[in-house]
Amino acid sequence: MDQHIAEAIGRPDLIRLDDRLVCLRFETMKVVSALAAVRHLLDTGVVRRGDTLLDSSSGIYAYALALACHRYGMRCHIVGSTTVDDTLRTQLAVLGATLERMEPCSDLKLDQKRRVERVHEILAEHPGHHWMRQYHDDVHYLGYRAVADLIRGATDGAELTLVGGVGSGASTGALAHYLREDAPGTELVGVQPFGSVTFGAEHVADPEIIIAGIGSSIPFGNVRHASYDTLHWISFEAALSGSVDLLRRHAVFAGLSTGAGYLAARWERARSPRRTVLFVAADTGHRYVDSVYARHREAVPIGSLAPRQVAGRDGLALPWSRMDWNRADPPS
Ligand SMILES: Cc1ncc(COP(=O)(O)O)c(C=O)c1O
């Protein structure tokens, strides 16, 4: 039996959607990562019970860290963007986590920069606070070992391709790392929004809203570029069609990054007849009811969508591009 709700929430489901397509479905990803990170920091004496853990988050990490702090008797302070919605804000308040929501800012780069600046101000005022640095500290990889074990146990030696959105890079990077310990042929496919600097697509803007949680306007230390075999850049519009199809066809109600991952996973599945393709569903669809699901009539049949195969970043174009990354280093 679980000793805390965070353990239950952190454990994903593995759902077989067809013979070679599997969904790794989280209620809220990052709970498993935050729990293991806090545990490790306590065990190694970096922090003590009652200390304050601090980070900036646009949403699901805030919730994950608040649950981990609740579990281990820590205080939690979040510098959030306006993507922290009212439901989460209320839960954080009752859980005892404090939240500062930064003023709305349409420029993502500025928004991220201002949040980091605010974190530095807080650290200057409270040097005893511990900054979790979810985007840079690979302590966030640790919790995914248990998830990799679960995948290994359930897929019974199948050759795997893992597909997932890349934000901090911890989930896809860690899962690939742990799976490759005994299956080095495991392929890793990263999914990005257009406009993200992480794999060099900052020059192609998506006119629609950004896909929450994936991509970045600044480089992140937790992204291990040399782990990725393939990259897909997917527009909001295509991801919307993916999300709606996933709900309609398979009854999985998930977020927009999942819709994008599902499109990429179906594509990779069709190209590799021997492989089982597993894609990450990082959150549920509730946050996306108005922005995505209410627009379900705009969804196009996903069979009509195909990526443009590009050889380099110059070729990237909306609505969907695919590139062999070949475990290369970060873009210069
Ligand atoms: C909805 C969603 N999908 C995917 C991701 C990417 O996960 P990671 O930060 O582990 O790369 C995030 C991260 O915040 C997210 O919020």
Automatic annotation (TrEMBL):
Residues 28-281 form the Tryptophan synthase beta chain-like PALP domain. Its cofactor is pyridoxal 5'-phosphate. The keyword Magnesium does not apply. It comes from the Bacteria. It holds the Pfam family PALP. Keywords: Pyridoxal phosphate. SUPFAM superfamilies: Tryptophan synthase beta subunit-like PLP-dependent enzymes. PANTHER family: CYSTATHIONINE BETA-SYNTHASE (PTHR10314). This is Pyridoxal-phosphate dependent enzyme. It comes from Streptomyces yangpuensis.
